[in-house]
Amino acid sequence: MNTDPIISLSHLTKHFPVGKGQFTALRDINLTFGTGEFAGLVGPSGSGKTTLLNIIGSLDVPSEGEALVMGRSVSSLTHKESAQLRNQHIGFIFQVFNLLPVYTVYENVEFALLLQRMDAAARKKAVLDALEWVGLTDKINSKPPQLSGGESQRVAIARAIVKRPAIVLADEPTANLDAKNSHHILQTMQRINKELKTTFIFSTHDEKVMQYLERMINLADGQVVRDELVQPVKS
Amino acid sequence: MLTFKLALKNLLGAGLRTWLNVAVLSFAFVLIIFYNGMIDGWNEQARRDTIEWDVGQGQLWHTDYDPYDPFTLQEAHGMAPAEAGLMPVLIVQATIYPEGRMMPVRLKGIPARQQTLALPTEALVPAGDETRIILGKRMAKSAGLAEGDRVLLRWRDQHGTFDAREVVIAQVFDTNVPNVDAGQVWIDLAVLQEMTGMPGEATMLVADQTYAGSAPEGWAFQTQDQLLTEIDTVIQSKKVGGSITYLMLLLIALLAIFDTQVLSIFRRQREIGTYIALGMTRREVIALFTVEGGANSLLAMAVGAVYGIPLMAWLAQAGIPMPAATDNVGLAVAEKIFPVYGLGLVLGTVALVTVAATIVSYMPARKIAYLRPTDALKGKIL
Ligand SMILES: Nc1ncnc2c1ncn2[C@@H]1O[C@H](COP(=O)(O)OP(=O)(O)O)[C@@H](O)[C@H]1O
Ligand SMILES: [Mg+2]
Fold first, then answer.
1. A residues 155-174 near B, CB within 8 Å?
2. How much is the ipTM here?
3. How many Å apart are CA B297 and CA A149, to the nearest integer?
4. Res A234 pLDDT > 90
5. Which of A130, A192, B243, B352 could form an S-S bond across to A162 if both were Cys, CB 3.0 to 4.6 Å?
6. pLDDT tens digit sequence for A97-132
7. Does residue A188 contact residue A174 with C-beta atoms inside 8 Å?
């Protein structure tokens, strides 16, 4: 594993205003991630997993401390810069898939590349490539409402990796899937991680996901309580 | 361009809701163009008819002549200037007695062989020893007279002395211009000059294309535009009156779009969050939603064109029958009006509807700027 950190969090704290006071969702987080990691934030609901992924994804900013992603401090980015960072380097996978309902599978995957203004030929190749990775080339023209949960999440994976990002952030990606589909998408992501060296960071409290992780970071009440390299059970 | 493509895709993807908005908006579209086209067509027809039948290329008036004052008419005449391109008309007050009733009229002497106005004055060419007059169908109807009828005509000569004679109605003509019809009786100019003892005199002269524009002492030139201001005023008021109807419809359509936009921003928060996660800025998302709402107007144009163009083309061909009652507005109204749709009208309407739809789409979309992407992804209410 490459030890060059592409994500580096130091003394990261996040408060949310609640009523008159504030709620501390993350407290003094210090973590680094290198290229090609397959890591998971593990903890019960409310432990701060999503909040942390959002900050790494520059959808949110830390209240204190610093988050460096691809060498850039998340707090100092303009809207445009953070949009660019996400567009080029970060893929998101959500619990609820968040596919664009009026677009076909192909168009959903293509979307990020359109934003990048990639030329048509390269775009087509990349989209078909990504759909190949997730085994959905036969559903190109389907629309999200016609897909099963497993298929939807595979489209979401294709959408996340089509731009070949350095980092994929997957927030409880199996929470709406049955066991069979969960294993299928985890194996797909594992394969992508190995072959494309994409860094994956999961948030989960699903045992099935944990079986694939190579690094497990336990969160409780917004703090890292354990951070260890583990031997994936499944590979 | 990308924004536009995405917006159109979203809009079409929304299905029924879009088509309802588009339907209402397209009605507004078609109605605005149709109504204004009708008024413009009417305006064109009214001006054309009034020029042909009444005002010509302008009129040279005796300085004492006031068409709205019958009392000064007796004095408002003088030797007709001999400028080229002018056709003299002598006007006196007179009375006719159809079936024993008394009807004050304006007796107008016009050269029987004139070509300046569309009045069928050849019928006035003297034949035999009877005195011939012509009048319009409105006048004929209100007097209960028909072609070939005889009627007693009484007038005053230049000394104020009354004289009377039986005249024959040589022709009843059909015109859209009430000004040359209601209350008017036309007679040969030479005959009238002889009857009144005013040889060579006129009250006003109607200009044709060849008139050079010089006004001699005692005469004042009224340009064609001055003489048509009345039409312009009436047409303008019709336009304003009609615009209230279609602006209401447009308002309803815009309200529907506004409503859809407000709802969209509530219901499509996850989608907004997803756009941002995929690398759009909030400003780009606002642009997307604004263009999406504004694109309603483009669809409305397309839909409006589908049924509007054949409908309006047909009406422009077949004309719109006007009820007889509209005859009373004092303006030349044909039995059928042929709408005209100018490029300016169409482009102006397109611009108006597009700009309005875009503005009402932008107003709610602006809210996205205050939306936190993390909240949007959770689908939290703003
Ligand atoms: N925008 C917010 N405002 C207030 N509290 C928040 C907000 N977002 C998250 N929280 C709180 O922060 C804590 C951590 O949330 P989250 O990161 O979503 O946890 P997890 O993903 O581990 O379930 C929770 O207690 C949650 O209620
Ligand atoms: Mg969460």
1. 159
2. 0.95
3. 37
4. no
5. A130
6. 999 989 999 999 999 999 999 999 999 999 999 999
7. no
List, as ranges, residues with CB under 5 A of the ion ligand 2. Answer: A 50
For the CA of A222, the nearest atom of ligand 1: 14
Q: Is A19 in the pocket of ligand 1 (CB under 6 A)?
A: no
Per-residue pLDDT for A205 more than 70? yes
pLDDT tens per residue, range B291-300 = 998 999 999 9
DSSP assignments along chain A, one per residue: ---SEEEEEEEEEEEEEETTEEEEEEEEEEEEEETT-EEEEE--TTSSHHHHHHHHTTSS--SEEEEEETTEEGGG--HHHHHHHHHHHEEEE-TT----TTS-HHHHHHHHHHHTT--HHHHHHHHHHHHHHTT-GGGTT--GGGS-HHHHHHHHHHHHHTT--SEEEEESTTTTS-HHHHHHHHHHHHHHHHHH--EEEEEE--HHHHTT-SEEEEEETTEEEEEEE---S--
Judge if the beta carbon of residue A50 lies within 6 A of ligand 1: yes
Helix (H, G, I), strand (E, B) or coil at B299: helix
Contact status of B324 with chain A (Cβ, < 8 Å): no
Strand, coil or helix: B15: coil
pTM of the model as a whole: 0.79
**pLDDT single digits (tens) A126-145:** 999 999 999 999 999 999 99
Q: Does B326 score more than 70 pLDDT? A: no
Closest C-alpha to ligand 1, atom 27: A46
Q: Which residues of A touch B279 (CB under 8 A)?
A: 83-84, 86-88, 112, 115-116
Region for A101 from its dihedrals, namely left if φ exceeds 0, alpha if ψ lies in -120 to 50, beta otherwise: alpha
How far does the CA of residue B354 sit from the closest CA of chain A (Å)? 24
